[in-house]
Structures are given as C-alpha cells and as structure tokens.
User: Fold Glycosyltransferase from Pseudooceanicola albus.
Amino acid sequence: MKILFIHQNFPAQFRHLAPALAARGDQVMALTLRVDRPTLWQGVQILPYALPGGRAQSCHPWVLDLDSQVTRAEACWRAARTLRDQGYAPDVILAHPGWGESLFLADLWPAARLLLYCELYHRPEAPDPEDPATDPEAERLRLRLKNLHNLLQLPQARAGISPTRFQADTFPPPFRARISVIHDGIDTDALCPDAGARLTLPSGLVLDRRDEVVSFANRRLEPCRGIGMFLKSLPELLRARPRAQVVIAGRTEGAAYGPLPPGGTSWKDHYWPQIAPLLPPGAAARVHFPGPLERADFTALLRISRAHVYLTRPFVLSWSLLEALSVAAPVIASDTAPLHEVLTPDTGRLVPWGDPAALAATLAATLADPQRARAMGQAARADIRARYDLTRLCLPAQLAWLDSTA
Assistant:
C-alpha cells in the first residue's frame, strides 16, 4: 500500500507504526513541518511543507485557532498537490487532525481512505480550581468553536484511532462508533526497572534509588497539568519527609495546553514566590527544577523515583504516566477521568484534583511505607505489560486496524 502520514511534528504518535509499515514493504511517506528538506527515516520518506510568513491574524479571538488551522491546511494541501501532480496517489492517508493539516486532502485524493488520529474533542468542563477561566460562560462558547476543524474533518474520514477510551469518548456519538481504541504502545522491554539508575542534576547533585526522590514532570509546567496543586503540596510534604528530594522536570516558560501565566512570567515564577516562604527552613534546597530532560535522564528520573506524581484535568493522557508505570515507579495521580482506565487501587493512588493537602498526605504515606510502594510499582509494571506493551499488543493491533480499514 501507499500510505501518507500527516503530522506537523512527525513521527510523534506514529513513531512506531510508520517504520513498521515501511519494514513490511509498504510505501510510506510523511508530510511535516519538522524538517526543512526531504529526508529518509527508518524507511519513511519525509517531505517538508512550509507555512507562509508574515501574515498577522486579525480575526475574532474565538476563531484564532481555526484561522491557524486553515493556514496550515492550505500549506499542507499545496505540498500535497505537488505530489499529486507528480503522479503520487496514496491508498491511505493517516493524519492527526488537531492542527487542521488534513482539511483539504480528501479533495485532492477522493479515492484514498482518510484515517484520523483522534486525540481529543474539546468539551467544556466544570470550573477548574487550578486553571480558572476569567469568564466560564464565554469559555464554553470558545471551546465549542475550537472544535470547528474536527467537525469539518470527521465527515470525510473512514475511521479513527484513539489511544484511550476516555479520549475516544469525547467525540460525538455519530463518529465515535468509527473510532477504535488502541494505545500507541509502551516499549516495556526498554522501559524496565534498573536498581543501578542514577541521575545527575545540573547542580551536580547525584541521586539514585537510595534517595527519597519525588518526581513530577510535564512537557511544560502549567496549571492544567497540576503544577500549582503540586507546588502547594510541598510545604506539608517536605515538613513530613525531611529527607525527600523533589525533582520537577519540564520547561517553565510558556504553556502547551492552557493559558499563559499572568504578566508573561512562567507558571513557576507565578507560584514559587508564594510557596517558597511556606517551606520548612532549608527545604527549598531540596526542590530542583532541572528544566527539560533528555530521554535517558528522564528515564533515570522515573527509575529512581520513590513516588512519581502525575496530575491532569480531564485531558489527553501523557506517555510519561505509562512510562513511569512501566519502570515500576509508584504513581500518585489525580482522580480525573483519563486516569480511571489506567490505574487500579493495586497499581496507583488517586487524589482529588485541586486538593494539595490530600496529595501531600498520600505522598508522605507512600514514602513512609517503601515495601508497599514497591509492591504497587511491581503490580503497575505487570499491568502495563499486560495491556499496553508495544511489540506484543499495541503495534500488532494498530497494523491490523489499518489493514482492516484500508
């Protein structure tokens, strides 16, 4: 088959599926913003498309997202049209629709099967104590318009794939029936426990399994992923656990999913001045912000962690959570919808979203009982291998899904 992947940051969610298709003999191509020249990666021909420069957005703020998505869609369409004019015609187009890139591809290749990676259909939630909207009623209207690109693309698609049932169930019922729930997969053979793991922080401090490490990590530290709740738990936690070392990994500037911090500061700079004076004397030296970590260092952090904290409002589920479970890190997470299908009482602890005191108490109890925490981590690893293993379960299921829909 001729298979065309569309993702602004390819390979992203397709980093295992695309090479597997190429390895079995399919002709695999990808259009992306990530490269600036054609390149070959694991058998996949990657071609760039470029966005037009210098055009200022001057539309209503509620449709800024759609304006950006149409801009990307046009740029992707022009690159795809060049391929069509050269004689290329894919049998299957597998696209992430979140940035609008696949909006016009069915017009170019009406005979191709368009398949969508259905990451999230935005739904208004109850007011969030960690990430309050300035006007909740207006926010509901903005979120409705935020789905316009989904509503334009779903009718064109033959089928969809979603990594979790929660994410699939956010989509409207007429299309939900065409979405298969298959996770991207976790390489549990590579992401395994390692008693000898060590992490050297930028300060030069070396941490290993003998240290009482509490870890927290996100691509960007922002309220919708719980940075405010976590930082607010630290005074009580560090008072109860005077030997704990807290490592908070991720970019501090900007935001990935929620609003920018007030005054253009980072969310760390917004919260930390409020929290630092409340810490026990000297405890601030036990809180570390190493920034974003390289893959090997991030895996080492998970492996040495006595308790890994994962917090999120109802939203897309991070790979990092399943990676932490795969290396048998004891996980304390928010009692929110995405976690309910992953964690059980045997494999993790859930705490109420927006309750720093409950988080601190649960963390302190976990650190105080290392034998129980170790058993929880081992149960979590067994569960991840049984349900989310890449090579034995998820990748074969993705290949079978693609073949059946194509």
